TrEMBL record:
Residues 1-26 form the signal peptide. It comes from the Bacteria. SUPFAM superfamilies: NTF2-like. This is SnoaL-like domain-containing protein. Keywords: Signal. PANTHER family: ESTER CYCLASE (PTHR38436:SF1), POLYKETIDE CYCLASE SNOAL-LIKE DOMAIN (PTHR38436). The keyword Signal applies. It comes from Vibrio maritimus. GO terms for biological process: polyketide metabolic process.
Length: 285
Protein backbone atom coordinates (compact mmCIF):
# COMPACT_ATOMS: atom_id res chain seq x y z
CA UNK A 1 0.00 0.00 0.00
CA UNK A 2 1.67 3.27 -1.10
CA UNK A 3 1.52 6.50 0.89
CA UNK A 4 -1.30 7.96 -1.23
CA UNK A 5 -3.40 4.86 -0.72
CA UNK A 6 -2.74 5.01 3.01
CA UNK A 7 -3.62 8.70 2.98
CA UNK A 8 -7.11 8.13 1.59
CA UNK A 9 -7.90 4.59 2.72
CA UNK A 10 -9.64 5.99 5.79
CA UNK A 11 -10.59 9.38 4.36
CA UNK A 12 -14.17 9.52 5.60
CA UNK A 13 -13.24 8.54 9.13
CA UNK A 14 -10.29 10.91 9.29
CA UNK A 15 -12.23 13.82 7.87
CA UNK A 16 -15.24 13.45 10.14
CA UNK A 17 -13.38 12.62 13.33
CA UNK A 18 -10.68 15.28 13.54
CA UNK A 19 -9.13 15.64 16.97
CA UNK A 20 -9.70 18.79 19.02
CA UNK A 21 -6.09 19.84 18.44
CA UNK A 22 -6.44 19.45 14.69
CA UNK A 23 -9.56 21.60 14.63
CA UNK A 24 -7.83 24.28 16.69
CA UNK A 25 -4.89 24.22 14.30
CA UNK A 26 -7.20 24.55 11.30
CA UNK A 27 -8.88 27.59 12.86
CA UNK A 28 -5.48 29.27 13.17
CA UNK A 29 -4.60 28.68 9.50
CA UNK A 30 -5.64 30.91 6.64
CA UNK A 31 -7.59 29.46 3.74
CA UNK A 32 -4.49 30.03 1.62
CA UNK A 33 -2.43 27.84 3.94
CA UNK A 34 -5.07 25.12 3.92
CA UNK A 35 -5.23 25.08 0.12
CA UNK A 36 -1.45 24.85 -0.11
CA UNK A 37 -1.46 22.00 2.41
CA UNK A 38 -4.02 20.04 0.35
CA UNK A 39 -2.04 20.39 -2.88
CA UNK A 40 1.28 19.69 -1.13
CA UNK A 41 -0.17 16.52 0.38
CA UNK A 42 -0.25 15.03 -3.12
CA UNK A 43 3.54 14.83 -2.77
CA UNK A 44 4.03 14.56 0.98
CA UNK A 45 1.12 12.29 1.95
CA UNK A 46 0.30 14.57 4.91
CA UNK A 47 -2.91 13.07 6.28
CA UNK A 48 -3.87 16.19 8.24
CA UNK A 49 -4.65 17.97 4.97
CA UNK A 50 -7.80 15.86 4.61
CA UNK A 51 -9.25 17.81 7.52
CA UNK A 52 -9.41 20.99 5.43
CA UNK A 53 -11.93 19.44 3.01
CA UNK A 54 -15.61 19.17 3.92
CA UNK A 55 -16.29 15.40 3.78
CA UNK A 56 -20.05 15.90 3.40
CA UNK A 57 -19.99 18.66 0.80
CA UNK A 58 -17.16 18.63 -1.75
CA UNK A 59 -17.99 19.41 -5.38
CA UNK A 60 -15.42 18.43 -7.99
CA UNK A 61 -15.07 20.24 -11.34
CA UNK A 62 -12.09 18.28 -12.66
CA UNK A 63 -14.07 16.27 -15.18
CA UNK A 64 -11.67 13.34 -14.99
CA UNK A 65 -12.28 12.83 -11.27
CA UNK A 66 -15.40 11.47 -9.59
CA UNK A 67 -17.33 13.77 -7.29
CA UNK A 68 -16.74 14.07 -3.57
CA UNK A 69 -13.80 13.35 -1.33
CA UNK A 70 -13.81 9.68 -2.30
CA UNK A 71 -13.28 10.63 -5.95
CA UNK A 72 -10.31 12.78 -4.99
CA UNK A 73 -8.77 9.92 -3.06
CA UNK A 74 -9.41 7.44 -5.86
CA UNK A 75 -7.62 9.69 -8.35
CA UNK A 76 -4.56 10.02 -6.14
CA UNK A 77 -4.37 6.29 -5.56
CA UNK A 78 -3.78 5.80 -9.28
CA UNK A 79 -0.39 7.55 -9.05
CA UNK A 80 2.68 5.30 -8.78
CA UNK A 81 4.34 5.54 -5.37
CA UNK A 82 6.81 8.36 -5.08
CA UNK A 83 5.96 9.77 -8.51
CA UNK A 84 3.88 12.80 -7.56
CA UNK A 85 5.39 16.26 -7.17
CA UNK A 86 3.55 19.48 -6.34
CA UNK A 87 5.40 22.77 -5.90
CA UNK A 88 3.11 25.75 -5.32
CA UNK A 89 4.61 28.86 -6.92
CA UNK A 90 1.92 31.56 -6.69
CA UNK A 91 -1.24 32.07 -4.65
CA UNK A 92 -4.27 34.34 -4.70
CA UNK A 93 -6.76 34.66 -1.85
CA UNK A 94 -9.93 36.55 -2.75
CA UNK A 95 -12.91 36.20 -0.46
CA UNK A 96 -14.09 32.60 -0.39
CA UNK A 97 -11.72 31.64 -3.23
CA UNK A 98 -8.07 30.57 -3.13
CA UNK A 99 -6.18 30.00 -6.37
CA UNK A 100 -2.82 28.25 -6.64
CA UNK A 101 -0.34 28.21 -9.54
CA UNK A 102 1.60 24.98 -9.22
CA UNK A 103 4.42 23.09 -10.87
CA UNK A 104 3.29 19.46 -10.94
CA UNK A 105 4.71 16.13 -11.91
CA UNK A 106 2.21 13.29 -12.17
CA UNK A 107 2.14 11.19 -15.28
CA UNK A 108 4.62 13.77 -16.59
CA UNK A 109 5.45 17.43 -15.81
CA UNK A 110 2.52 19.85 -15.84
CA UNK A 111 1.75 23.46 -15.05
CA UNK A 112 -1.57 23.91 -13.33
CA UNK A 113 -4.02 26.22 -11.65
CA UNK A 114 -6.27 25.03 -8.83
CA UNK A 115 -9.14 27.05 -7.41
CA UNK A 116 -10.76 26.16 -4.09
CA UNK A 117 -13.95 27.61 -2.64
CA UNK A 118 -14.27 27.67 1.14
CA UNK A 119 -17.27 27.74 3.44
CA UNK A 120 -16.80 28.05 7.20
CA UNK A 121 -13.09 27.37 6.85
CA UNK A 122 -13.43 24.14 4.86
CA UNK A 123 -13.01 23.45 1.13
CA UNK A 124 -16.34 22.69 -0.50
CA UNK A 125 -15.53 23.05 -4.21
CA UNK A 126 -12.55 22.60 -6.54
CA UNK A 127 -11.68 23.59 -10.11
CA UNK A 128 -8.43 23.15 -12.00
CA UNK A 129 -6.78 23.58 -15.38
CA UNK A 130 -3.67 21.64 -16.39
CA UNK A 131 -1.28 21.77 -19.32
CA UNK A 132 1.78 19.69 -20.09
CA UNK A 133 5.08 21.47 -19.61
CA UNK A 134 6.73 22.52 -22.86
CA UNK A 135 10.17 23.85 -23.67
CA UNK A 136 10.78 27.57 -23.02
CA UNK A 137 8.92 29.95 -25.31
CA UNK A 138 10.55 32.14 -28.01
CA UNK A 139 11.63 34.60 -25.30
CA UNK A 140 13.19 31.83 -23.22
CA UNK A 141 10.53 31.90 -20.50
CA UNK A 142 8.83 28.91 -18.91
CA UNK A 143 5.22 28.37 -17.84
CA UNK A 144 6.17 28.81 -14.19
CA UNK A 145 9.07 31.26 -13.80
CA UNK A 146 8.70 35.00 -13.25
CA UNK A 147 7.49 37.31 -10.48
CA UNK A 148 5.84 35.84 -7.39
CA UNK A 149 5.59 38.64 -4.82
CA UNK A 150 2.12 39.96 -4.03
CA UNK A 151 2.12 43.77 -3.83
CA UNK A 152 -0.33 46.68 -4.17
CA UNK A 153 -3.06 45.16 -2.02
CA UNK A 154 -4.79 48.54 -2.01
CA UNK A 155 -5.15 48.28 -5.81
CA UNK A 156 -6.85 44.86 -5.91
CA UNK A 157 -10.24 46.16 -7.04
CA UNK A 158 -8.74 48.47 -9.67
CA UNK A 159 -6.55 45.70 -11.05
CA UNK A 160 -9.48 43.28 -11.23
CA UNK A 161 -11.50 45.92 -13.08
CA UNK A 162 -8.63 46.44 -15.54
CA UNK A 163 -8.40 42.72 -16.31
CA UNK A 164 -12.18 42.43 -16.57
CA UNK A 165 -12.15 45.20 -19.16
CA UNK A 166 -9.20 43.59 -20.99
CA UNK A 167 -10.97 40.23 -21.22
CA UNK A 168 -14.19 41.83 -22.42
CA UNK A 169 -12.65 44.34 -24.84
CA UNK A 170 -9.65 42.47 -26.23
CA UNK A 171 -9.99 38.73 -25.64
CA UNK A 172 -13.73 38.47 -26.22
CA UNK A 173 -14.44 41.61 -28.24
CA UNK A 174 -11.31 41.52 -30.38
CA UNK A 175 -10.98 45.31 -30.43
CA UNK A 176 -7.20 45.47 -30.86
CA UNK A 177 -7.35 49.23 -31.45
CA UNK A 178 -7.69 49.58 -27.67
CA UNK A 179 -4.81 47.27 -26.70
CA UNK A 180 -2.72 50.29 -25.66
CA UNK A 181 -5.15 50.88 -22.79
CA UNK A 182 -3.95 47.66 -21.22
CA UNK A 183 -0.39 46.85 -22.39
CA UNK A 184 2.60 49.07 -23.14
CA UNK A 185 3.93 49.22 -26.69
CA UNK A 186 7.54 48.18 -25.98
CA UNK A 187 8.37 44.46 -25.98
CA UNK A 188 9.88 44.88 -22.53
CA UNK A 189 6.51 46.14 -21.25
CA UNK A 190 4.83 42.71 -21.46
CA UNK A 191 6.50 39.52 -20.21
CA UNK A 192 4.95 36.44 -21.77
CA UNK A 193 4.96 32.88 -20.38
CA UNK A 194 2.63 31.27 -22.93
CA UNK A 195 4.56 28.38 -24.46
CA UNK A 196 4.32 29.59 -28.05
CA UNK A 197 4.35 33.38 -27.74
CA UNK A 198 7.24 35.85 -27.42
CA UNK A 199 7.32 38.93 -25.19
CA UNK A 200 5.53 42.14 -26.06
CA UNK A 201 2.66 43.09 -28.30
CA UNK A 202 4.79 42.12 -31.28
CA UNK A 203 5.07 38.53 -30.06
CA UNK A 204 1.35 38.38 -29.37
CA UNK A 205 0.58 39.75 -32.84
CA UNK A 206 2.79 37.21 -34.58
CA UNK A 207 1.14 34.32 -32.73
CA UNK A 208 -2.43 35.51 -33.31
CA UNK A 209 -1.75 36.10 -37.01
CA UNK A 210 -0.30 32.61 -37.42
CA UNK A 211 -3.35 31.02 -35.80
CA UNK A 212 -5.74 33.05 -37.95
CA UNK A 213 -3.86 32.18 -41.16
CA UNK A 214 -4.04 28.50 -40.19
CA UNK A 215 -7.82 28.79 -39.81
CA UNK A 216 -7.63 28.17 -36.08
CA UNK A 217 -8.08 31.53 -34.33
CA UNK A 218 -8.11 31.66 -30.54
CA UNK A 219 -11.68 32.50 -29.52
CA UNK A 220 -12.88 33.57 -26.08
CA UNK A 221 -16.64 32.99 -25.91
CA UNK A 222 -17.39 33.56 -22.21
CA UNK A 223 -15.70 34.64 -19.01
CA UNK A 224 -16.69 32.76 -15.89
CA UNK A 225 -14.57 34.18 -13.07
CA UNK A 226 -12.10 36.90 -12.24
CA UNK A 227 -10.38 36.88 -8.85
CA UNK A 228 -7.38 38.81 -7.66
CA UNK A 229 -5.10 39.84 -4.86
CA UNK A 230 -3.00 42.96 -5.24
CA UNK A 231 -1.00 42.87 -8.44
CA UNK A 232 -2.12 39.35 -9.48
CA UNK A 233 -5.45 38.68 -11.21
CA UNK A 234 -6.70 35.31 -12.50
CA UNK A 235 -9.30 35.04 -15.26
CA UNK A 236 -11.20 31.83 -16.10
CA UNK A 237 -12.77 31.73 -19.55
CA UNK A 238 -14.25 29.34 -22.09
CA UNK A 239 -13.72 29.22 -25.81
CA UNK A 240 -11.94 27.52 -28.70
CA UNK A 241 -8.28 26.86 -29.40
CA UNK A 242 -6.94 24.75 -32.25
CA UNK A 243 -10.60 24.16 -33.14
CA UNK A 244 -11.24 22.47 -29.79
CA UNK A 245 -13.52 23.41 -26.89
CA UNK A 246 -11.23 24.60 -24.11
CA UNK A 247 -10.93 26.31 -20.75
CA UNK A 248 -8.56 29.28 -20.60
CA UNK A 249 -6.95 30.15 -17.27
CA UNK A 250 -5.02 33.43 -17.62
CA UNK A 251 -2.98 34.88 -14.78
CA UNK A 252 -1.97 38.53 -15.15
CA UNK A 253 0.44 40.69 -13.16
CA UNK A 254 -0.54 44.34 -13.16
CA UNK A 255 1.78 47.28 -12.45
CA UNK A 256 0.88 50.97 -12.55
CA UNK A 257 -2.40 50.35 -14.33
CA UNK A 258 -1.04 48.14 -17.11
CA UNK A 259 -0.74 44.38 -17.61
CA UNK A 260 2.97 43.56 -17.50
CA UNK A 261 3.17 39.75 -17.22
CA UNK A 262 1.05 36.79 -18.26
CA UNK A 263 0.89 33.06 -17.52
CA UNK A 264 -1.75 30.64 -18.77
CA UNK A 265 -2.94 27.10 -19.13
CA UNK A 266 -5.27 25.86 -21.87
CA UNK A 267 -7.07 22.57 -21.30
CA UNK A 268 -9.38 20.74 -23.69
CA UNK A 269 -12.86 20.09 -22.27
CA UNK A 270 -13.77 16.47 -23.04
CA UNK A 271 -17.18 15.46 -24.41
CA UNK A 272 -19.80 14.95 -21.71
CA UNK A 273 -19.85 11.21 -22.34
CA UNK A 274 -16.34 11.07 -20.82
CA UNK A 275 -17.07 13.11 -17.68
CA UNK A 276 -16.72 11.37 -14.32
CA UNK A 277 -18.97 13.91 -12.60
CA UNK A 278 -21.89 16.07 -13.70
CA UNK A 279 -20.69 19.38 -12.26
CA UNK A 280 -19.23 20.90 -15.42
CA UNK A 281 -15.89 22.63 -15.91
CA UNK A 282 -17.07 26.00 -14.61
CA UNK A 283 -20.19 26.67 -12.49
CA UNK A 284 -18.73 29.38 -10.27
CA UNK A 285 -21.06 31.04 -7.81
Amino acid sequence: MNKLTRLFATTAVAASALSVSAVANAEEMTNREKAIAVISSIETGDQSAIGYINPENYTQHNLGVADGLAGFGEALQQLPEGSAKANVIRTIQDGEYVALHTEYNFFGPKAGFDIFRFEDGLIVEHWDNLQEVAKPNPSGRTQIDGATEITDLDKTDANKALVTDFVKTILMGGDMSKIGMFIGDKDSDYIQHNTGVADGLSGLGVAMKALAEAGMPMVYDANHLIIGEGNFVLSVSEGKFMNQHVAFYDLFRVDNGKIVEHWDTIEVIPPKSEWKNDNGKFGFQ
